[in-house]
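Every protein is a chain of amino acids, and every chain bends into a shape of its own. The fold becomes a row of whole numbers, each drawn from a learned catalogue of backbone shapes. The protein below has been through that process, and both of its lines are reproduced in full.
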Amino acid sequence: MLPPNRIRVASVPAGHVYIHHLGPVQGSLPGLPDVHRLPDPDPDSPDNPATGKWWPPVMLNSGWIDANHDSFDVFHIHFGFDAQEPSSLQEAVTALRRHGKPLIYTVHDLRNPHHESPAAHNAHLDVLIPGADALITLTEGAAAEIERRWDRKAEVIPHPHVVELDTMADYARRPRTHGGPYRVGVHVKSLRASMEPLPVIRTLLDAAREDGNMVVQVNGHCDVLQPGGARYDAGLAAFLDEEAAAGGLDLRVHDFLPDDQLWEYLAGLDLSVLPYRFGTHSGWLEACRDLGTAVAAPDCGFYADQGPVFGYTHNEAGLDAESLKAAVRAARSAGPPAPLAPADRAGQRDDVAAAHARIYSRLLERTGVLQ
């Protein structure tokens, strides 16, 4: 028998920092039900909780839903369905209907950053957006596109903090003046289809030469910038190696960084440039906001709706180099932004948690789960 005012959520996924930060900072919220998110099943052993690996999500299998529908009250999809066929995703939606379980879908991506073509993701969206009982998205711009394309209204709930609150507080106490040249960073990590870093980096190098007191830092993962890597980009690697050898840029090649090193790196930049030619929202942008690092973001997607950015023109038609140079100059003239106050982020997180609890409660009122 369920305790009163406790909602069990089958969350796809559960083991991701975004989902961790959908809960209140301290336990529960007055007047609202407690929300308990089921752990991700282990993809290699679906009867057991995952210990770290959650992909591919077991919960999206209609057989899992049929076998486990008594263990959850609502089903909430965020991401991780890339490998699903639209037909199997529809089977999951149908299984939820069969068992009377409300479906919530948070539309993080209107264009999948890993797909060169939008077709596959659009086919997924055409299942999930019409099939959901409630829709959430992160920005007003994305909500407007959802309404235009599917005639569905999505509730806008902003992205919560990414950096942990105590870490944010630690960085907020540090001085923001680094000394030395103005440092502009581009992260090429494991290249996504949405990224086109080379023209962005070339433009930033031109801006640095014109400025005379600016350094361009490029961080990239070994699998992209070292021969033999799974996503080795020989042209990009050769260009970066040549510019680094000539002293034109600060090149740092490494594997995936643990959080403490990633935050140190981001906090060491004056400006982080997002080199995307398409996309929707960005957790990277939110981490920079948490740490007080300015962001230059392209005009594709809805990055400017998430928070203050220095915008430039970059999309599938190409890069407007002068707009990027202007964004860098504007960021430099503005000086370092103040990092978001941990107390403000904590308050926002509680608001985010409350908004989710209210949506779940509203959907469950007809089921008698909430006593």
About this structure: DSSP finds 14 helices and 16 strands in the chain. The radius of gyration is 22 Å. The chain has a mean pLDDT of 93.
